[in-house]
Amino acid sequence: MNTKDIKEQYNKYIVVIAVLLFLIGLTIVILSESRVPTIVGGALINLGMTIVVADLFVSRFGSRLLKEQIMNGFRRILGIEDSENTLLSQLIHLQRPHPYHVLGMTTLSKMVYDSNKKDKQYNMYVVERTTVYIKALEDNIHYHFFRGTPTGENSNYKIEVRLDGYLLKFGRDITSHEEEDKRVQYIIKYKLKQGKKYKVEILSVHPTCMSDLNHGTIKEDYFEHKFIELTNKYDGVFEFPFDLRNYEFTAKRIDACRREKFTDVKIKDNKVYISEENLYNGDHITLDYRKKTKKLIQ
Average pLDDT in the 176-183 region? Predict the structure, then answer.
């Protein structure tokens, strides 16, 4: 690596780190109403400004070796290369704190194949039943969540929501609007109370597709669940309408920095089970599946 490349990478990481720290600190100061978060936010703002000042000094007087050492140090501290270090992902989580967190989430996704639509683009549909137990950390807050198909086919998306067993009516009890990425955000109007626990049940039905049923290929298909608040425990169950012995399954947990790690998959009674704990804003779980090649099927 030549001196010019090192300088460009050094400047890039320093600027990103300083701006990120400054913005996080400023956000915390603006949104916080208590003393401790304000102190933390102020400290992050000062740290970002200090990094900029130090950068000016190192850029002007620092040697090539010093810049290389500083770059490697920041990469190690922020966990860019070390998957065990979560500082950067934690800082990202701080940018969007939630006034509640999920004590437990269980999702049952049942795929149903429609033989009458074998040659159609959407030859299957998914019935998803999700139960979420949440705890409010502040008064008068609203629970919100996202739903939507990967292709944005939300016109055929049906959903039913219950709060503590009470069926919510759209427009009166719950509102929704579509985001730029074709996801739909649902907001429950009922104001949650600090310290109280609630049960939210979501039943949704949406179209999907299975590539090898249409084309006989081994193209991968997948499920993906994204998390937007602290979730203590997640259990995902996926029920398929075909013999799972003929398919390969791979599950991954991906954090806000796009770092991946494999998670265990259990298969029983034509269902796939995944369990994870301590998920944060920006984390998501993916389940990839594809039909085995003839060499792998015994």
Answer: 76
Residue 6 pLDDT class (50, 70, 90 cuts): very low
Identify the burial level of 281 via C-beta atoms within 10 angstroms of its C-beta, where 0-12 means exposed, 13-18 middle and 19 or more buried: buried
- 3-30 burial string, b = 16+ CB within 10 Å, else e? eeeeeeebeebbeebbebbbebbebbbe
Tokens representing 86? Answer: 């979560």
Spell out the long-range contacts of 78-86 with Cβ–Cβ below 8 A and sequence spacing 24 or more: 78/17, 79/257, 79/259, 80/257, 83/259, 83/261, 86/255
Residue 61 burial (CB count, 10 A): 8
What is the layout of strands, in order, in the sheet containing 221-226? 221-226, 284-291, 247-254, 260-263
Q: Does the global pTM surpass 0.70?
A: no
What average pLDDT does the structure give for the chain? 75
Tokens 């740290």, located at residue = 47
d(CA 222, CA 250): 9
User: Mean pLDDT over residues 211-237, rounded?
Assistant: 76
Q: Which neighbouring-strand residues pair with 260?
A: 254
pLDDT tens digit string along 110-149?
Answer: 988 877 776 776 777 889 999 999 999 889 889 988 887 6
Is pLDDT of 177 > 70? yes
- What's the rounded Cα separation, in Å, for the pair 290 and 272? 13
Which residues are registered as beta bridge partners of 135?
101, 197
CB atoms within 10 A of CB 165: 7
